[in-house]
């Protein structure tokens, strides 16, 4: 496997004002009876992007994918591909293919016949089919399994057959609905990297639906976080994690402490936030939060330092509490620290040394501290 680092690092067409989106959802709404599954949603996806739709069950992500594939039509709004309105174009005429979670392989056909199926239907010549199938088998490393039937394969191999079949017709866009949902955790992790390699090698645009945030964070160039038929934020994995735009996104992705408070003072970008108990939090960048407004200060557990003694002078945002709970996870320890106002804050520390020089245990006094730029101020 090769590292995609250098390619990925420079790929960011969404930051280029000249770049045209490849796929555009323009104010798309989808209703089933009086239920609104997708609500006035707009979204741009760029060519060669690995794009993930992430959200809880029922938020409308599959419906969005199905409309792009042509299995459903929007109730209102438009979906454009390379500037062309897709309305009325049947699924088989769209340069889009969909891979389902169930894989939908034909059980009575061999691996190669499964891969060849769509090509045959398209009337491709025998010789061309044979060479395309061979190319696909090589791509997914299943050359020696060509003559097997799906039930003679492992789950991961079946997944690769489904993948080979869905890219055999060389679609421009591949839609994947929970592509790794049927695999166990370890195989999922390996397959995530295979999928990324394959997408890069083929130069395709991938749109993946998943409810697994780690999967989205690992694979995608950008993630759209969805809730109730709407997009809450579209950003790179790092931005979604480090700079969530709302309480919903902060809470949805990863672990977070959410400290509610009021902006007591603002000067330039910095601000002081007062919590319910009077605790004061100094932040370096308060964004658009205005003085007097109610906000949440969101901070990830790994950005909070815990110690058994008060931190040295000069430390900012120091609060005293008690170790309320503690979980040793091997690679790290998660502390739940109960502050004087009763709020419990989670802080995690990497166990990089085999012995801990500052052992903290249940009901010990503890101090937490964090830098003024360690969290974000959320107004929504
Ligand atoms: P999951 O992860 O569970 O698949 P999802 O985010 O993909 O969820 P969708 O399948 O897009 O969700 O469904 C969104 C909502 O629309 C759900 O509440 C679902 O019940 C509803 N829905 C989807 N298809 C139909 C349909 N054909 N008729 C009626 N309601 C539908």
TrEMBL record:
Its EC number is 7.6.2.11. It catalyses: ATP + H2O + polyamine-[polyamine-binding protein]Side 1 = ADP + phosphate + polyamineSide 2 + [polyamine-binding protein]Side 1. PROSITE patterns: ABC_TRANSPORTER_1, ABC_TRANSPORTER_2. GO terms for molecular function: ATP binding. It is an enzyme of class 7 (translocase). Keywords: ATP-binding, Cell inner membrane, Cell membrane, Membrane, Nucleotide-binding, Translocase, Transport. Transmembrane segments: none annotated. Part of the ABC transporter complex PotABCD involved in spermidine/putrescine import. Responsible for energy coupling to the transport system. This is Spermidine/putrescine import ATP-binding protein PotA. It comes from Neoaquamicrobium sediminum. The gene is potA.
């Amino acid at each position: 496997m090769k590292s995609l680092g250098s390619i990925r690092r420079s790929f960011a067409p969404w930051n280029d004002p000249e770049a045209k989106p490849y796929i555009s959802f323009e104010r798309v709404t989808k209703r089933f009876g009086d239920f609104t599954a997708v609500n006035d949603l707009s979204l741009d996806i760029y060519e060669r992007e690995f794009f993930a739709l992430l959200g809880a069950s029922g938020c409308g992500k599959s419906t969005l994918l199905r409309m792009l594939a042509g299995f459903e039509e929007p109730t209102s709004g438009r979906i454009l591909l390379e500037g062309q309105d897709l309305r009325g174009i049947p699924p088989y005429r769209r340069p889009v293919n969909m891979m389902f979670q169930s894989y939908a392989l034909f059980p009575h056909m061999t691996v190669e016949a499964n891969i060849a199926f769509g090509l045959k239907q398209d009337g491709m010549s025998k010789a061309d089919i044979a060479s395309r199938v061979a190319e696909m088998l090589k791509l997914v490393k299943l050359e020696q399994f060509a003559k097997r039937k799906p039930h003679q394969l492992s789950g991961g191999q079946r997944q690769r057959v489904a993948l080979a079949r869905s890219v055999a017709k060389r679609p421009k866009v591949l839609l994947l609905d929970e592509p790794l949902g049927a695999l166990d955790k370890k195989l999922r992790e390996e397959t995530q990297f295979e999928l990324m390699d394959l997408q890069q090698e083929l130069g395709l645009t991938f749109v993946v639906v998943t409810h697994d945030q780690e999967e989205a964070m690992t694979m995608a160039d950008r993630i759209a976080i969805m809730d109730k038929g709407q997009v809450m934020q579209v950003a790179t994995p790092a931005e979604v994690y480090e700079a969530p735009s709302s309480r919903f996104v902060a809470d949805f992705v990863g672990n977070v402490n959410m400290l509610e408070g009021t902006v007591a003072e603002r000067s330039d970008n910095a601000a002081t936030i007062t919590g319910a108990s009077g605790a004061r939090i100094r932040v370096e960048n308060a964004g658009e939060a205005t003085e007097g407004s109610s906000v949440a200060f969101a901070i990830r557990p790994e950005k909070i330092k815990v110690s058994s003694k008060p931190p040295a002078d000069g430390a900012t945002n120091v609060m005293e509490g008690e170790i309320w709970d503690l979980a040793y996870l091997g690679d790290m320890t998660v502390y739940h620290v109960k502050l004087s106002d009763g709020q419990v804050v989670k802080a995690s520390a990497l166990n990089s040394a085999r012995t801990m020089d500052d052992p903290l245990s249940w009901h010990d006094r503890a101090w937490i501290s964090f830098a003024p730029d360690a969290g974000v101020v959320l107004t929504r």
